[in-house]
Amino acid sequence: MKKSPEFSLIQQYFHALTANREDVIVGIGDDCAVLNNPQDFYTAISIDTLVQGIHFFADVDPYRLGIKALAVNLSDLAAMGAEPAWFTLALTLPEINDEWLKQFSAGLADIAQQHRIQLVGGDTTRGPLTITIQVHGHLAKDNILQRNAAQTTDLICVTGCLGDAAAGLQYKLGQLDTAPLTDTDIEYLLQRLEMPTPRNQIGQQLVSKAHAAIDVSDGLLADLNHILHASNKGAKLNLSSLPFSPVLQKLPLKLATQLALTGGDDYELCFTAPAENVAKLKQQFPKMIRVIGEITQDKGMYFQNAQGEWQAFSKIKAGYDHFA
Amino acid sequence: MKKSPEFSLIQQYFHALTANREDVIVGIGDDCAVLNNPQDFYTAISIDTLVQGIHFFADVDPYRLGIKALAVNLSDLAAMGAEPAWFTLALTLPEINDEWLKQFSAGLADIAQQHRIQLVGGDTTRGPLTITIQVHGHLAKDNILQRNAAQTTDLICVTGCLGDAAAGLQYKLGQLDTAPLTDTDIEYLLQRLEMPTPRNQIGQQLVSKAHAAIDVSDGLLADLNHILHASNKGAKLNLSSLPFSPVLQKLPLKLATQLALTGGDDYELCFTAPAENVAKLKQQFPKMIRVIGEITQDKGMYFQNAQGEWQAFSKIKAGYDHFA
């Protein structure tokens, strides 16, 4: 019935993650970490929990899990346009498994190093495997990228490709017809599910070029709907512009479209920006930005059917609710 | 296999906790919270997880659990002398229990309001009951209260009373001889276990008056030992000075002493300071500060036995390890 203020486990396995930033005044090992915020910057923070059996399979590779645990949080910083700085880790473990901890911390270290984000605090407790990470980023005070500032005639864009992670999940659940796919294709889909790539570099550019942004974690329609709702706008989508990976293109078009629209777990960015800024972003990030529609004054989400008529999405799948 | 970026549950039950601080630029509901740090202050942060069955009993009153979940984190800010500002809540729940959530959030709201700390972010997931809270506080840059700055001849002090929570735990486990105690006494012990009082007001005064501080979560000896180890010092303790509540005084002295030294879960502060500053603190906080010993150049922890001789503690109980 006591907490442990000691970080022996974290010091042992996560040591490589706890050094190198000069803005960390007191790191792991005291009652609090003490952090030095740059002047004229806000702090952006986000906290996310991954629970075994809910957010990941029990047999997932722990190296990949280490990457994903930080990636989903970095993705929130990306959607806000914040520069990653520090994170904390609350790790609940059923047992001390040396090999698991080595692999998990190696994954965490690799993605942390890539994004120059430092582990500054943590807590380890015993219990069912649960990983909670909070990330902290710096955000220039004059540019905040929220969900509520989409403007009429903004182009709606997404980064990367959509639907791969959802296809990977269908494969894991035994629901994907793998006839058109090679083993390499399947491994690609699993990597997109198990090791998403947060788009922090693009996100930091969006603060000065986009009006609104969100990361695609619950499926494009659900997440775009958050922007529309917060901004009091509508959208016209061009479904033939959805960005599919070469692997997803091997699947039936209808399935690929459904996975891209409602699948989730992509951790790509969806943003709205004026056309001239989209052009600049496309130059800056070749092949990474796809225009998929336009913000409208009229509410609702519409797409063009095979006859060229605009149709309302009859059912926008609501954000995934873990308690639904 | 997806996370929920939505905070509908948090917005529904924790709404009262999410308002009122002007330094919250973006609160709950976007990808990140955006926070405005005061100039010339560091940010102190701490994260702690409470797991059902490890840190609290399944039958604990949810209102009290709400208080404790934040209290143990506020206590870390107190030990650092930081002023509470913001917190995040990652809540893993086996089910949506309306009555439980109402009670839990009411407890959380009451202690949050008391300490002017605002809920700025959160995540709700399904799984075994686990509560992770991260607190953020402001810390003037010229005063950081760490564990490593105890000076020889500093007086060793504690706030409040020690051992009550441990006695409450023994009662819950059916290990306490309750013959000397009334029902009111037992309720008092349970309250100390289930609703500890973080000492933030005193902690904020310590930054200018104490050399080193820690909160007593794992038992006085274990936590004082962290100060001694970090400061490279030793201590002489006067066991007859240990602060016992009137209820603990009804128990056999040997048991009360053992509970106070090794019991833990007190969430009082243990600090070291020069005698003149201790005198000032005693005036400022009457009856709340007790001198229990002195910092020594020679390492080790000693106490005076019945014959007046100094004896080493033969066994300093190490910090509670959830994996021991």
UniProtKB/TrEMBL annotation, chains A, B:
Mg(2+) 4 binds at D31, S46, D76. The keyword Transferase applies. Residues 29-137 form the PurM-like N-terminal domain. One of its GO terms (molecular function) is magnesium ion binding. Its EC number is 2.7.4.16. Mg(2+) 5 binds at D218. Mg(2+) 1 binds at D48, D123. Pathway: Cofactor biosynthesis; thiamine diphosphate biosynthesis; thiamine diphosphate from thiamine phosphate: step 1/1. Substrate binds at H55, D265, Y320. ATP binds at G122, D123, R147, S217. Reaction mechanism of ThiL seems to utilize a direct, inline transfer of the gamma-phosphate of ATP to TMP rather than a phosphorylated enzyme intermediate. Belongs to the thiamine-monophosphate kinase family. This is Thiamine-monophosphate kinase. The lineage of its organism: Bacteria, Pseudomonadati, Pseudomonadota, Gammaproteobacteria, Thiotrichales.
